[in-house]
Amino acid sequence: MSQQSTRALLIRAAMIRFGREGYEAASTRAIAADAGTNISSIAYHFGGKEGLRIACADAVADQIQQVARTVPLVPVVLSPRMARATLRRLVRRMVTFLILGAGANEMVGFVLRELAQPDSPVLERLYATLVEPRHAGLCAIWSAATGRPAESDDVKLAVFTLVGQVAYFRLAAPIVQRRMGWQGYSRPEARAITRRLLVNLELMTGGGNG
Amino acid sequence: MSQQSTRALLIRAAMIRFGREGYEAASTRAIAADAGTNISSIAYHFGGKEGLRIACADAVADQIQQVARTVPLVPVVLSPRMARATLRRLVRRMVTFLILGAGANEMVGFVLRELAQPDSPVLERLYATLVEPRHAGLCAIWSAATGRPAESDDVKLAVFTLVGQVAYFRLAAPIVQRRMGWQGYSRPEARAITRRLLVNLELMTGGGNG
DNA sequence: CTGTATCAATCGATTGATTGAATTATTTGG
DNA sequence: CCAAATAATTCAATCAATCGATTGATACAG
């Protein structure tokens, strides 16, 4: 575990730098130094700075696939009861990953930077392989839970509001923590957030209005 | 309207560059060029790049103050009915500003970049003058609407989930629009989003669970 | 004249990329 | 089992390009 390949070390260091400072601002020298290697290792392993960027995107996609595997990619028939249970499980997973997960902060930061550049090649990659299929799967489950058509605008938007709530607690973490009087995100904080999100989820899916 | 001061032009150009590329990556040359002036004007008007950054933060604060003026800073007594009406009005305002408002994209991008640097001086400034008092005011209204204690963790978190939902539609705009099949954000799209958010708000505040 | 504002020109520092040598790891031949 | 040979990495050094900042000159209004 302590001995990692230079390639993996570079990706990890780049994720942090890219996330914190942005792609252009992050210097390859600093990344290489963080990884404990030479600048030209980046050219060797990834062809250049841009290749390292794409490698980071792939790493993010891999990680999120792990979290999102609760959402089936193929349509399955679910009872409303089981659909709601699946959604609850997913909310717990998202919170655990985004709030407690190691490296989640850096990964979210990285994705965020890419989001700010709507024509980013990284964004294109992430959307097609990750966002689109997972969101569609979520809509199907949401549909099973509420009885509303899965591909209706309102269901799609409802799913976005669910995801948005979780994401916000990571994005605006400095603000949230300060306002809550929290020193950081740990178990009790994650529990409090989860509790609130599950209440919202229940309200949105349980009453037949969602 | 078409004739603006160099100072204002620089702030506007900087907001776009800072938001899109990040503070460090955005070059003062490009900003000056966008503003149609010389590099050294930045040093003249703002003392340097850092001064321009702070000027952008102040501009953001001013804009948001306009939107948030619906939320009273001083405690007022509100009936649950009127409190809910106030919250609905605020949701409409937020959507109008974030989704339709000119320059909102750039401003959000700018704030987002600062959020990624938790010890940013800009963030400190924005929190004290903007986030803290407005969030507290929102909690008070939320409390009036639901009967729950305003400074309880759950109310504070509930308010964050409300704000987070709106914010997400701006932050993840490229993803949302693509998934929804939208070409951009315009009136009909804003209405659809507003409708969903008002439903969520009603569920959270109306049932006595929020 | 005085002060405000903008200009082109230039400063040292740092950027991503490249190079060929040096180092390390793996495979091969005896 | 060891040593020679080959391949795989990493290294310091260097490149042109660009960075933020500064300078002194210039233009203009009161």
From TrEMBL, chains A, B:
Pfam family, one: TetR_N
GO molecular function: DNA-binding transcription factor activity; transcription cis-regulatory region binding
Domain of life: Bacteria
Keywords: DNA-binding
Record flagged with keyword Transferase: no
Keyword Isomerase tagged: no
InterPro entries registered for this protein in UniProt: Homeodomain-like_sf, HTH-type_TetR-like_transc_reg, HTH_TetR, Tet_transcr_reg_TetR-rel_C_sf, Tscrpt_reg_YbiH_C
PANTHER family reported for this sequence: HTH-TYPE TRANSCRIPTIONAL REGULATOR PKSA, HTH-TYPE TRANSCRIPTIONAL REGULATOR RUTR
Name of this protein: DUF1956 domain-containing protein
Originating organism: Paracoccus siganidrum
